[in-house]
Design a protein that fits this description.
Elements: H1 3-16, H2 24-54
Helix pairs in contact: 1-2
């Protein structure tokens, strides 16, 4: 099951939770647990998207980094 599918499933359960015949205290715990799960999955999805954008395609990750050059850029 992918993370996107899990987010959709947890959201669907969260929508149906008030209409299910469970005690109120269980509903509170379930709502908190589902909320924490959605937060963690959201973080993982954002992290995956960041790493996907930083991937150079050859197994390395790149980005805006400082590279010191030995070639003089300005004439003295």
């Amino acid at each position: 099951m992918t993370k996107e599918t899990l987010v959709a499933l947890l959201g669907f359960i969260l929508i149906l939770l008030p209409y299910l015949g469970v005690p109120d205290s269980w509903k509170q715990y379930a709502t908190v647990l589902i909320g924490v799960g959605l937060l963690l999955l959201g973080y993982l999805l954002l992290r995956d998207r960041f790493f996907l954008q930083a991937d150079l395609g050859n197994g390395e990750r790149g980005g805006d980094t400082f590279i010191e050059t030995t070639v003089p850029l300005f004439k003295e």
